[in-house]
Every structure is written in structure tokens, then in C-alpha cells.
Amino acid sequence: MNYAQVFMCDIANGIGIRTSIFVSGCTHHCEGCFNEVAWDFNYGKEFTKEVQDSLIVENNQPYIDGFTFLGGEPMEIVNQKALRPFMERIKKELPDKTIWIYSGYTWEELNDPNNKRCHSEDTEPILSMTDVLVDGKFELQNKNISLRFKGSSNQRIISVPQSLKTGKVVLSEYEN
Hints:
Layout: E1 2-10, E2 18-23, E3 45-46, H1 49-58, E4 66-71, H2 77-93, E5 98-103, H3 107-110, H4 123-128, E6 132-135, E7 156-159, H5 160-166
Parallel strand pairs: 2-4, 4-5, 5-6
Antiparallel strand pairs: 1-2, 1-3, 6-7
């Protein structure tokens, strides 16, 4: 997997101070996307063990609240393969850090085992380690710059632990 960029001490993509990792590769190609350059799976730099080691060390600070994965599309099957082991490291080595994922796929699509576009053997483990999922494609006709943590009104900010517990979508307390 490649990544387009990493923002350290980001306050725009989740609650608190976060490290935001913009992965490369996206098949959605949403009209009006703010990060079209990251559609290309080959764009950016390789997400190597050395990069991951550095992120673990740099984020072992009490003022860092967690990690946010966005892109591109973190939930493309090929990206899930690389993100799952890194997220497992986060949960093991930095257990107090939260994980947010921004995905153009909806909760329903991600949880549909017949949806081979985004559901794989890595999807359920990834969701089980995720605190918040911002789901749904960016829709230019629903763009609203006053929304917190999302770009268009069709997107949802989902509490993943509560949704997994209840078996239905539970919106996060951060939903507008």
C-alpha cells in the first residue's frame, strides 16, 4: 500500500489531536473530491515497516488522541490488507489511542459479506478495532462546509462499538 501524506497533530479529521494517514487508491472517484491525487493506488510513498515504526514512536505521546485513516479509500480491499496489521499494532502498543476511518463505502456495504468490492477477511477485524466510521461517498450536491467531520450531508458519523453491539447503525455523539 502507498500513502499520499501523513498529517501529524491534525485537529480537522476527528476528535482531539490526531495523526491522519491519507492512503493512496480509491475507486469511487467522487465528483468534487478534495484529494483526487490519492485516487491512484501508486501515488505517494510506500507504507513500509519503517514508516509504521516511526508513526508508533511519534504517537506515543499523551497529547495524541489517536489515528485517522482516510484517503484515497482505506477500505479498498488492497488497503485493508496493509492497514489491518498496522491497526493491530496500534491496539497492542498504543491501546489508549482511538481509530477513526473515513470511507466512501457505507456501513451496510462494509458489513455485507457478498460485497466483494469492499468486504474481505480483513473487514470485520478492522471494524472491531475502529471507534468511529465516517461513511458514505462525498456528494457534491450535498456539500456543506458547516458540517463537522464530514463534507456532505449524506455521510454519517457512526459509533462502531455501539453499532457492532446493537447490530444496527448507531450514530456517534459527534454526528451534527
